[in-house]
Amino acid sequence: MSDQNIPNTWDRLTPKSGAIYTSHYVLKALLLTLLVSACSVQAKNGGWPGLPPDCWQKPREVHKDSHHQDLSEIVLLERAGPVEVKNKIYSPNGGYWMSYQHAQPDFMVMADAEKEALNKITFIDVHGVKAPIWINEKLIYMRVWWGRISATDFIFDVEEEKFIYSESLESGAIAMDQYKTSCIIHPGCKCIKAERQDKPAGSDGAAAD
After folding, report:
1. Is position 186 within any domain?
2. Is 37 inside a domain boundary?
């Protein structure tokens, strides 16, 4: 979970009273160890969490690293009074609902959890949005694209009226194309290099002597 700045919506989860607290220093050491381990794994594949792009069968979206992106000016959360809303999408509980509208360049989501006011979420100047969906009775998942490459995943809790998750990602389509092109010119990428080593001599179409 990234530590992105979303105004008035990002309350850190706090343990209930009576919970046992791990030592501050032990916790910091544990987090540092996990971070170093994750970086070591990614470093082996050129910074990619899985195999590098020259090994992919098709382009993919990648949560490559944690972006500390400031979202305070492009994600707005407001409370709105009762309004006439069409195309309501109901939660599995049959009572809560949401509705969304793409009024370019912005994207707006309205959500109701049977309270006096609605939640109005506005994403400013977006490139595109994957249609919001309910992932359980009270949580809405959204993927917002800020351009052709970068996006952010969000999960919004309509009962708590706040985002409980957000993480940046990027499209790997351009990277995949660049990897495959550069690997052909400069052999050395993981999968293309192995493919060349396994290929019998003369199988690349060159005339045999």
Report:
1. no
2. no
Q: How many CB atoms lie within 10 A of CB 31?
A: 10
**Helical packing angle, 173-185 and 190-198, nearest 10°:** 40
pLDDT attached to residue 110: 95
| Strand 97-103 with 139-145, pairing | unpaired
Mean pLDDT of the chain: 76
Instruction: Count the domains in the chain.
Output: 1
Q: What is the CATH number of the domain that holds 69?
A: 2.40.128
Extract the tokens encoding 63.
């949560």
Q: pTM for the full model? A: 0.69
Q: What is the pLDDT of residue 43?
A: 42
Quick check: 167 and 150 in contact, CB under 8 A? no
And the tokens for 11? 């309350």
List the domain range (segments joined by +) for residue 149.
47-173
Hey, is 83 helix, strand or coil? coil
27 occurs within a structural domain: no
Residue type, 128: G
Give pLDDT, residue 103: 85
d(CA 199, CA 209) in angstroms, rounded, equals 18
Report, as ranges of residue numbers, the positions in the chain whose pLDDT lies below 50: 1-3, 5, 7-43, 205-209
Per DSSP, helices labelled H in 24-92 are: 24-44
In a domain, 103, yes or no: yes
pLDDT of 75 reads 96
